[in-house]
Task: structure prediction
Amino acid sequence: MPNERVLQPSWLALVAVLVMPAAADDLGERIATQGPPGGTAACATCHGHNGGGDEGVAFPRLAGLNAGYLARQLRAFRDGGRDNPIMRPMAQPLTDAEVVAVSAYYAALPPASNAKPPTEVSTTIGGVLVAEGDWFNRSLPACAQCHARDGLGAGDAFPALAGQIYSYILGQIDAWATGKRIADPHGLMSPIAARLNLDEAKSLAAYYAAMGVAPAPVAGATQGTGVPTDVTPLVQPGVGRAETQATATGPVGPPLDHGPVDTGRPQGSAGIFHPPARNTAPKDRMGEAIRLGEAIFIGTFSHPESARYVGNTQTCEGCHLDAGRLAGAAPMWAAWVAYPAFRTKNQRLNTIAERIQGCFTYSMNAPASTVGHAPEAESDTLVALQSYIYWLATGAPTGDSGMPGRGYPTLDPTPQGFDPDRGAGVYQTVCAVCHGNDGQGTWVRGELLFPPLWGAKSYNWGAGMHRIDTAAGYIRHNMPLGPATRLSDQDAWDVAAFINAQERPQDPRFNGDLAETTRLYHASRYDYYGKRSGPDGRPLGDEPAKR
Amino acid sequence: MPNERVLQPSWLALVAVLVMPAAADDLGERIATQGPPGGTAACATCHGHNGGGDEGVAFPRLAGLNAGYLARQLRAFRDGGRDNPIMRPMAQPLTDAEVVAVSAYYAALPPASNAKPPTEVSTTIGGVLVAEGDWFNRSLPACAQCHARDGLGAGDAFPALAGQIYSYILGQIDAWATGKRIADPHGLMSPIAARLNLDEAKSLAAYYAAMGVAPAPVAGATQGTGVPTDVTPLVQPGVGRAETQATATGPVGPPLDHGPVDTGRPQGSAGIFHPPARNTAPKDRMGEAIRLGEAIFIGTFSHPESARYVGNTQTCEGCHLDAGRLAGAAPMWAAWVAYPAFRTKNQRLNTIAERIQGCFTYSMNAPASTVGHAPEAESDTLVALQSYIYWLATGAPTGDSGMPGRGYPTLDPTPQGFDPDRGAGVYQTVCAVCHGNDGQGTWVRGELLFPPLWGAKSYNWGAGMHRIDTAAGYIRHNMPLGPATRLSDQDAWDVAAFINAQERPQDPRFNGDLAETTRLYHASRYDYYGKRSGPDGRPLGDEPAKR
Result:
């Protein structure tokens, strides 16, 4: 069960915590401070009595890390997933129970760090990589995308890096880049590490080491920031780590082998438009609007300016990756120059403003209380978004409706068609690590790292992404994040069908008659609305009282 | 008095008509049918008994033409302004009274045409030149701009061409092009004729000859089409010709000599953006919106879609010449790629939609009954205008706020400054022939050929054009229409000051306090609002009840 979801409350997890014998904690402490029964050295000898690690010999900080993550590493040392000449003999005598016990012990220790990053290493480029990545040139998502803006990680898949030992981080980046360490989820880290040069790796390591154990979140980069007052996080801030102590899992396993690896995104390729680099907007009133637009784009559901128009916990960036820059992920620069345009969807000419309003109406499931289910054309939100998108399109030729990389790539049908039941397996194997077993995304400490894919906080039945073909094309070419494994065409079709066979908020065009609404707006064979039974046995969309 | 205004009711004109002795008509008829007392041939001998001209010998149609125009030509033949070996001896014996009498006779004859254009000559390119001109490549305004969409002309300056003799039109184009005929207002026709090739001249002549004497107006090209229900034309359709019979004037004189002639506009120059050619919008729903936008742009105050948003008789094209294409006349392609942008005027980020709304609020003096003094963002009018402007910008680089030809050229100050009193003379000499002695523009037969420049039907005190510097730059580089004479810098400054020293609709930002409104919005030294007395002795803008 390499991808078991560990961040959400479940009665199994609660039971496990409640029934865990007190002796287990004692066992963990004993191993840490005195060594395991078999006789090897105490963990604290090398990792510090406070568990804060040792900078001089590149031994990592353990105190306060996620128990599941720690256990997975111990098993990997023991079973060969991580090839380390010092840790292998330490881990080899440990039973599974002892692995769990000592991991839980360190997870429960007060967070501590003995990191001493070298003062001569600049953290500048590291900070940029943490907050922004380098998606354009190297398909590198922001580190914070998975490790969270505060650097404290998420669940057992994405460890805390803040306050980690500088020399340890640097060594691990090297281990990933050279194939010595491979036991990360879906092989995400190896291609990322391989694309960093030594100066960047040093800067990153110094940046994280200098953050300490109680860091302030960095700006930007991730999909949702802050919890709006009307949203209940699925996992309360701070809860995740305790839960995961009882549900620690083994190694996630080697990179998936059922799809080709994209070695590079089209975005940085020849012939692909280059939007302006981040943080280069002018320092004037126009620049203010651009920056506001970018902030709204990234944090739509929680940004004070735009939150009122969002009825779920989605952001523009959730579908338009790299803050709207990424070719093949419906980049905004390609959209800007293609509007006004006639849209079949609403049978009228749409300005870019009306097109964006459509995103709010459907993808953001704007509350019915908003005028027209969207921000007004003259609202600060819509003006700022237009300013940002316009700026992204700087230099793009007006009227070019076919810029390479526009929209999502079309995925050819496969002989097997698409099947939600097959897709369920793909989802659990690949997608759940980020989006959750229940599809409700990942919240950590008030930050939404990955968006919900169905349910009340997802896009509604009118959003483009509810179409199986659209979602399949998007998933095939963009998921998982980063320059890692891609799904096969077949898996992309199946998992898109699975996701869109779940219930979600009502189509705002619903007129009270499911059959007629289906006929009017959901006739496509790539659309389950009104045609397939949902998990509750009723036809999808058959909830007149919704919204 | 070469530029005397003849299209508007005035008691002088009415008196002249009323007191004209019946004998004068008899005199005219006698000259026409029997020859003048001195003994030369009767006009009808060559021009036809119906006054419809003679195609075989290139003698023009006279019946139904404007009396003032006819009288001016007779004097020109008599006095040497037109050098014609046949007409000179005919005209030489005529007294001024006889000139007026025979001109009035022919003007009052039922319109007739003996034109027989050769069937092998295509009228296609002629029709395009009539409706659209070729402003882009050769600075040629549409023929219909001055001769009216129905080809029946305007006043004594712009003769009827519809139903005119083919061979006569062709001969006159040649005479203008070669300098043999020069007595047209401000030398407008010579540079136009010189830019036509023989095939075009033939096609034009055939087009007009084939129109007959009761033609249907051609589409497009001129500034206002049709009279909206809430607008009272300053001159009722059909009234103009009768009036002018009594106020016929002599030759307008040679081209003005106090300013250089622009031999070509910047628009067709190297480095100037080329918008799509007319009539090349796609044949789809987008194309429909583009065409609707173009029609609104050209006929704003009278178009059924946009009329409700216009409180005067202005059009977009009135300031943005060549349907928004012309470099140096605030071309729309340059504006499209420069928005959104921060505007000092309203201290906020403006999308192109809001920028256009500003034009309605001020330049079109939108009725207070409209929401926000402008079309709503989602209105068909604003969507269509955006579609049209977007299309005009096809290929223009997004974000380029400095495309060559954007806006109006800036005019450097002159040592003499600017003076409305000096400008009054310039106005009467140059501008009044089109815009009227009273600045109220030219209406003919329900069509507005030239827009009002002040008064209730002009732009209001908030429009950019009310600024003397803006108007001076516009006038210097764009007026009069066509590739003809330009004013000197000094005359442009002075006439801009004169025009903007007249009263016009209140600034919609007026808050009831003239001094404060002046301080807030009219502090510029190029702005007379609240600072100079108007023709009625009260400060300009001092009319709280206005609008």
User: Anything to note?
Assistant: The two ends of chain A are 36 Å apart (CA to CA). The interface with chain B takes residues 284-286, 289, 333, 336-337, 339-342, 348-351, 353-354, 376-378, 383-384, 386-387, 390-391, 393-400 of chain A (CB under 8 Å). The mean pLDDT of chain A is 86. The first strand of chain A starts at residue 341 and ends at 343.
